[in-house]
Amino acid sequence: MEPGSPHTIPVFSTFASPYDGAAPINGARKPISLWPGMYHSPVTIALWETRSRTFERLLDPPKDAPPQSELQVKTPAQSRTSILYGFSSDYILREQYRDPWNEVRIGKLLEDLDALAGTISVKHCSDEDSTTRPLLLVTASVDKIVLKKPISVDIDLKIVGSVIWVGRSSMEIQLEVIQFSGEKSNATDSVALTANFIFVARDSKTHKAALVNRLSPETDQEKLLFEEAEARSKLRKRKSVGERKETDDGIAKRLNELLTEGRIFSDMPALADRNSILLRDTHLENSLICQPQQRNIHGRIFGGFLMHRAFELAFSTAYAFAGLVPCFLEVDHVDFLRPVDVGDFLRFKSCVLYTEPEKPDGPLINVEVVAHVTRPELRSSEVSNTFYFTFTVRPEAKALENGFRIRNVVPATEEEARRILERMDAETLQL
């Protein structure tokens, strides 16, 4: 392997065909969709089967070991890792990732991105010393995930990622999903999706913030990525302290403008605009009990699983709202506010927060999904995560409909109007 080249981990289907080594009964094969065990992502297994000493230490950390005493300086190349999906040759793997439109299931891909980002963060923070206790590394946030082009399930796929920025106890990992569509495809055109994850380090014994190894970017591209990530970190800090301020009169005016049409729906529904709909009428919800199979190495439900479930609900919400098959565009910034444990009662609530029907490249549907950890025995419910997904509609679906139009979404309460304004302001700050 050339110096600095990413370590590539091949991904395979997670189980063998039930007919391998034996002829099918009566010559009939059961459809792949009916085989057992198709749920689990193959990527997590592939990552763990690298069997590195670092990961074995995480599974069985030394008891009463001292913390890492000296920080190391590492390069992005030292954490760079890639995973390869052999879709063109592994038909079982294809079936595990295929969606109804012969593309890769985005929800499963979100799981894989989080799993790979976690692996990369561990590689960067490892001190290669079996006598020290490893750090506790958790997903703090996802800066943004942007789909640049559709991802086919019939063509080999690669995800490449590395640490691009390090703070005192946090780091940013950038991932690129790469798929070459033909012999003439160049490196830029082959990037199908980009994602940036923020991980934070905690001492595994005290659970306090822990320092992480420094990062020394070497190439011009690595230095540019470091500077861009540094700027994003400063922006996040400014937003957290509420740098963007607006007068009470300004906020009241914007709230009143949003609520004007909502009042007509409430007071004079027969006269309401038929091209609009109340936000509360776009709601969907589902719930689940978090199972042991969904936990990470630290015993908690991993962020990728939460993103997967939130995406599935957001997609359904956009589908029911538009009446046409939605096309995913991006996941906006996500903060993981509260850890989710095995056995937690998790509720996902979604709505179409607002739409942008007149966009020249196609209408935009902005969906909010809020994950609540509910404890009936304590009569409590806390927000774990809030996700914001952006969809449009597939061009081929739109072409089939005459007079197609996406409705405007209007709030009926001041609380709904404030959520819309906060989301719009957050989008403006990112531009």
Automatic annotation (TrEMBL):
Q: Which InterPro entries match?
A: HOTDOG_ACOT, HotDog_dom_sf
The protein's superkingdom reads Eukaryota
PROSITE patterns documented for this protein: HOTDOG_ACOT (PS51770)
Q: Which keywords accompany this UniProt record?
A: Hydrolase, Repeat, Transit peptide
Q: Example GO molecular function term? A: hydrolase activity
Domain HotDog ACOT-type residues, every copy: 83-205, 280-397
Task: Look up keyword Hydrolase and say if it applies.
Answer: yes
Q: Which family does it belong to?
A: Belongs to the acyl coenzyme A hydrolase family.
What's this protein's name? HotDog ACOT-type domain-containing protein
User: What is the organism of origin for this protein?
Assistant: Eucalyptus globulus (Tasmanian blue gum)
